[in-house]
Design a protein that fits this description.
55% helix
Length: 258
């Protein structure tokens, strides 16, 4: 689909964003998104460039397409924010302030600037768990708390109910054990950051699934980390390393010239 000229109707910035996305994808667009999403994007661009016979009806149709595109490619804007330099997230800003606060408390304890009662309260503050986003529980007590909050009890105790509820037969027992393993993994996984072994296990299990193909598996994926993590994911897991070109960010919009 060739685009010439400019849209005949005044468009919002969101509409221009999706038109620019279509232009940047070019002839290789089918390699980056499913056919139904690509057809949706083509129809959206086509109606933006049509001669406005009924402008109000055309704008309503364009708004409808924008909503559908947001549902089909929700990560388009978010990925661009992760790739280009930006300010630290609220979580990192909070962590920096928290570390500064803890250092001050440790200084008071080390210099004996507080009495014994205040020192005990200060130690309680330092030893308390941080339940902010991105901080997994790492102690046995915290894991026990997570088990009780989410499942009601430890999975080891829940396994004992197999005979009580009448799980019999090899197939039923295998399903029960798998269900218990999933519940246990759900809690254990929250106690640490994902390891390389867990990542490889996930890739091995999902490599042949229908939705894990090219960017189909990346559309609704949240990537934790910096731009290097995103580049590694794109070059090693989704595309071939030779097909991914890294352009160092120097000044805004200079990357378009390359």
């Amino acid at each position: 689909m060739q685009i010439t000229g400019k849209p005949k109707i005044k468009l919002r910035s969101e509409a221009h964003d999706y038109i620019n996305l279509f232009l940047l994808l070019g002839e290789r667009a089918e390699n980056f998104m499913p056919n139904d999403t690509l057809n949706l994007l083509k129809n959206f661009v086509r109606i933006c460039y049509e001669e406005p016979i009924d402008p109000s009806k055309q704008l309503a149709e364009i708004d409808k397409y924008i909503l559908e595109l947001k549902e089909s490619i929700p990560g388009y804007t978010d990925v661009s924010l992760m790739i280009f330099p930006h300010e630290d997230s609220k979580a990192f800003q909070y962590r920096t302030q928290k570390q500064s606060f803890e250092n001050k408390l440790k200084y008071f304890i080390d210099t004996e600037a507080v009495d014994s009662q205040t020192k005990e309260q200060t130690l309680n503050i330092l030893n308390s768990h941080d339940y902010s986003v991105g901080t997994p529980p790492v102690t046995e007590a915290h894991l026990d708390l997570m088990y009780k909050m989410v499942l009601g009890d430890d999975v080891t105790e829940l396994r004992k109910f197999r005979d009580v509820i009448g799980v019999n037969g090899d197939i039923e027992e295998a399903q029960w054990n798998y269900f218990m393993d999933v519940l246990e993994q759900m809690i254990i996984q929250s106690s640490h950051y994902t390891t390389n072994a867990e990542k490889q296990d996930f890739l091995n299990r999902t490599f042949l699934t229908v939705n894990f193909k090219g960017l189909d598996g990346f559309i609704k994926t949240v990537v934790g980390g910096g731009s290097n993590t995103v580049v590694e994911l794109l070059s090693e897991e989704i595309f071939n390393n030779k097909d991914v070109k890294v352009i160092d960010f120097k000044m805004p919009m200079t990357y378009l010239n390359k």
